[in-house]
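The record is kept unedited without comment:

——
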Amino acid sequence: MIPIPAYDFDPTEVAVSWRVLTAQGHRVIFATPDGRPGMGDEIMLTGVGLDWWGGVPLLRRLPVIGLILRANGDARAAYRAMASDPAFLTPIRWDVVKVGDFNGLLLPGGHRARGMRAYLESRVLQALVAEFFAAGKPVAAICHGVLLAARSCDATDRSVLYGRKTTALTWRFEGSASKIAQRTRRWDPDYYRTYPDGPGQPEGYMSVQQEVTRALADPSDFIDVPVDAPDRSRKTSGLYRDSLRDERPAWVVRDGNYLSARWPGDAHTFARLFAEMLPA
């Protein structure tokens, strides 16, 4: 089961996960709020709107920086294939998903507030996530998907991630992207900040990393790339993305039946490891 919002989900995290899982023989079912096909963040698909002239009608179709920041060619190809898959075109509604019908749950992310807040704040999805955890079934979350998991509470009214180790979109990545948008997308400087910091809040207080960390039993349970990790520069620079042939840029954390990752650059490794957690 992969629940997605009506629009603005991250195309890499959804499409690459779909491709890896189906290639290994798993059947993927999608769910949306209204049972209609979802739509990925078109800015991440095209790169249009990420340059400082992106607000100018005659120039906005000429991306430069956007070509670097958008989903890479591999992810865009996966998205095109997914967009014609019958399962993607005929999703079920969030509110009819039954945990007993599925072997596992995958929570993708996305950062554009316009479409993602309804997904992250959905009581229906939060209850569903808690049910999957309570049933002991494999759950995987990447990027803002970890935030949805962190907001999902069990019978003790604590986050389902309380007492677990996890990673998520780091403030290093989110803050860096936000600084770029403040310079190149000045008409919408919070494009990368789903939840901007409020008055009196320190920088990054409403970031994914900080909110997830506040839901954990101990701040040390948020696991970022250690300073002595192999290929650390590849994993933390934001310039490299993994592939099925090269997992060196990826950082994925597993805690029992729960798997987490940070951003689209981890998607191939994240999906492959989750596929291995599911029944054959």
The chain has a mean pLDDT of 96. The first strand starts at residue 2 and ends at 3.
